[in-house]
Amino acid sequence: MNKTYNPKEVEEKWYKYWEDQGYFHANYKEDRPLFSVVIPPPNITGSLHMGHALNTTIQDILVRWKRMSGFNTLWLPGTDHAGIATQNVVEREIASQGSSRNEYGRKKFVEKVWKWREQYGRTIVYQLKRLGGSCDWSRERFTMDEGMSAAVREVFVRLYEEGLICRDSYIINWCPRCMTALSDLEVEHENLRGKLYHVRYNLTDGSGSLIVATTRPETIPGDTAVAVNPGDERYGDFIGKTLFLPVTGREIPVIADDVVDMEFGTGALKITPAHDPNDFEVGNRHGLPRIKVMGDDGVMNDEAGPYKGMDRFQCRKAILKDMSDNGSLIREEDYVHAVGHCYRCKTIIEPNISKQWFVRMKTLAAPAIKAAEDGAVRFIPKGWENTYFEWMNNIKDWCISRQIWWGHQIPAWYCDACHGVTVSRTDPSSCSHCGGTEIRQDEDVLDTWFSSALWPFSTLGWPKETEDLKRFYPTSVLVTGFDILFFWVARMMMMGLKFMGEVPFRDVCIHALVRDAEGQKMSKSRGNVIDPLIIMDKYGTDALRFTLASMTSPGRDIKLSEERIEGYRNFGNKIWNAARFIFMNMPEEPVTLDCTALSLPDRWILSRLNSTVKDVTQMLGEYRFDLAAGTIYSFFWREFCDWYVEFAKIQMQEGGKRKDNTVAVLVNTLDTALRMLHPFMPFITEEIWQQLHSSSIMTAPYPSAEDALIDEAVESQMESVMDIIKNIRSLRSELNIPPSKEVDVYLKIDSDAVRKLIEGQMVCIKRLSSAGNTITGADIQRPELSAILIFPGGEIYLPLAGIIDIDKEKGLLEKRLKNINDEISRIDKKLSNMDFVEKAPQEVVLKEKEKHRELMDQKERIESNLSWLK
Ligand SMILES: [Zn+2]
Ligand SMILES: [Zn+2]
Known about the structure:
The protein is an alpha/beta fold and 870 residues long.
């Protein structure tokens, strides 16, 4: 075995080996309990970030654990075509070559995107492999592959036939840069500092005027009314009269509508049905005309009169100037308001009226709400259930058409002769209404989330009744971030129930976001991105996986720092060194464990091992990866390496049967611990396992606890032994007694049983605490000038005359005590300063409190040491 573990040398080798051996492959024919997972398909434009790393790690832990536990396990991978995102990337690429999408034309452009996808779109797949993801790559899918396209088509047609998909004029969110509609979820709201303009509209009869407040004066040419609240006494006389538009002079009515908030602005609201979603509704109620004054590209059109041809922001300036000149701009005030931005290109979106396709969601939502109420699907952590219900109960129709080229083109054909619409499973050659052959397909494509909503069943072969579909649907668990709960999870619920009659997954395991050490979102502009690929190069994949698993506690974001990863890399090295030590002591002939000839430390480590297995299994079942990882970590490092291996070294010196049995316990513990750890750290465990067994750990069973070996009495006996050693060691280190200097140990223990127990372990106690002579008894007198230590079973005395210079040590301790007291009062002062406690980041406050606790402990110890030195 190499002296040090080198991840680079082993990771690629083992991943390839696993794939070649077909260990990731699920077989529907096998009659074992099932466990299936579909991957949240990463975008083909994606490059691995920490979010993927966390998501993949969690899924792989579950999948490897279940696979080793005997389940027929499928983890189905794939990628998403990511409509707008991918189109933008390719557009940018061809722009850099001096061309444009329109120059290419639709057909050539789409071909170009496919080519791009072949070239770069699978980068993310290789990166998932580097993370060790044990996906069944033979079943890899893509949201635009043939099967998925068939599923999309079938769903669209069936929903259309049932009246759940329809085409309608509606006001939608529009990105003037991407030139496409966006769903409400695709709009990001950001608070911007703007202005609220107060504008005077004069009555046509000359009897007065109304003041209207607006943030978007460029839409004034599209106003078709001014609305006031019918209960507003200030405006009772105005209702039914007409006003002149301040810039174009067109006449519009004053109407009354309950929706107008009397408190807001002046209580009079300009109504622009074509450019504002709320005004659109008001317009519908009052039969107002819709006047579009802006084109889809954000440039003012004919209806804008003198402002025609101006960009929307240019137009705003021009209108303000004109109104200021003619006296209708009364005043402007600073105003902060939420402005919607395109989630892809960050352009300010424009509400726009257009003909779009919609899915009627209310009907689909009802069963999905019920399924969660009935517990057919479980959210972990449970708190997300409320978020889900709230959204589902207030669900709006889903605008699914996008005015882009990359995606599933909408399967609807228009007939110019009869204006009929033909929606069909296969491309029609004639109009289904009049039989005319002059038909053309809708140019739009479907929202990229439409195909991902079908992911859990379309990937398994639906609409065909495949064996995979029969066996693996519903899937066992979905692992996802909360940011796509509505985009994706809720829609999969609705579609799964609608088309499969059953929920798509039993459990939804929702994990948090990975942030930087200070809790800030990682972003390129902040320069705080920790790149998983660089981390894996530097520390190995296992270290990254173990770090993410240990830090993913429910409902809390991960604050990732490189030091943490480095720490868990050291854990890997610890495991490696322990294995090396064991291998070096293994005899040629394999040793078998004789359970009738175990020492107390042997029985203790086997008891702890089995308790750990039991706890870890339960924690994994509850999706508590953090607790499971922490439990394995402290078992392996603290209990096994720090304690048992040290006892084992002493036991092995006895030779003969004792040595053989000790080696057997070491091997047995390592063997079980490796299997327990494998889902978290697949590479290092495989590397060691192969040297132990010459077979793959992937085919070994996940350990199950042997209850007979769990012995609480043994655990507490061993605690006493370790307690004595720990006490003596820490005293020695505080008094700077070098390890070479032996100190006699007197143990005053009242109970005969405890004394016998301690005497039985005296060889180890002596060795591990560098003790000279040891004396035990019930009525031992404390020697002069001795340190006293209390442990649960009695007292320990260490005579120190001649060992240390008592006066010198006393001086040193007093000096240290003074420093500690100073430090404590400094922190006290800081923590009693409310300004600090309230304003400093919580992390900093917690750190100070933690430090305070530690100092208090130290203070107590030094004071007790000083007391007997006096
Ligand atoms: Zn955009
Ligand atoms: Zn027709």
